[in-house]
């Protein structure tokens, strides 16, 4: 077997250097560079950076929200697990309501998925939050529908990274076309996932290795 | 906003139908078809199926092991979270040692990553297990080095899906070139990740929606 690199910090550094050498970052604003590089790091695909869509200032807004103590609302447990707690600047709450007791019955009553029903339970935490969708298109769709009501509290930032074949493209296109006044970062197309959106959250945090 | 599909079962069915219509499954043996389709489902990329490498009978072996009660050894918490417990046929243990107390000190002493050190703690569970690596190339490299010792108990199946730019390609090439007599499924190249390998485990389980 060949020798291999065993130094975690060196592996990180080398990985980020490879991404920067291969990816086109010219279109990415300075406040989103960390997000772009870390999302590419999470998936092994530098060209994912070409698929990023975002509103101006989204990175700075997200970083300020996180420093101000914003909770992070995750659509599934994998996203919550992927967030490196040591990077969170304000011991931010990481909330996933998907497995909360009422969700199954709510989904039946609302005639929708558990992922969408779980978003209803975000309401008390929504104001100023960081929303991290890394799995379910229906979660993002339902959030956007909730935000169509001007009374719904606004998140500080929506990270839209649902993945897949049914609704993923459409939900992210809807977010990019009309984010209901909320700053956003998303990856267009079918690609996405919990590792990518957790990497985006981690990029908004402080320097730490976890 | 456009109408969108809210029926989880229908979304699954439609997604799998899209994958089957777009992907080339001709090269995939029958016992790996579910794995191939579910891995493609997890990442939104039907062409990931072209990157699968495997030993003959790996799917059937993995399924039998799982039904026989095999523990599932995961290299990170995201993999463990991605495994749908309702699909496991024998209430199989899902084990992740990455955050076990001794790991940090072991990594220092072994001069390697925490991910690799954590694999040392798999030894008591290794015989007949399903190994699911979805993050760290160093975890897969260290496992292969352990298996170079003929005294090391053999897993039933290695699912090799580490992701990234440093060591991911090399560790999976090493697995495919010499799996130390252990059946394996891997995705060659830089791509991989916790969602893909969790999907592969879920594909070996029984039919259930989670």
Automatic annotation (TrEMBL), chains A, B:
GO biological process assignments: cobalamin biosynthetic process
Ranges of residues in domain Cobalamin biosynthesis precorrin-8X methylmutase CobH/CbiC: 11-204
UniProt keyword terms in alphabetical order: Cobalamin biosynthesis, Isomerase
EC number: 5.4.99.61
Protein's pathway: Cofactor biosynthesis; adenosylcobalamin biosynthesis
Molecular function GO labels: precorrin-8X methylmutase activity
InterPro entries cross-referenced by the UniProt entry: Cbl_synth_CobH/CbiC, CobH/CbiC_sf
Pfam families per record: CbiC (PF02570)
Similarity annotation: Belongs to the CobH/CbiC family.
NCBIfam families membership: PRK08285.1
PANTHER family: COBALT-PRECORRIN-8 METHYLMUTASE
Protein name in UniProt: Precorrin-8X methylmutase
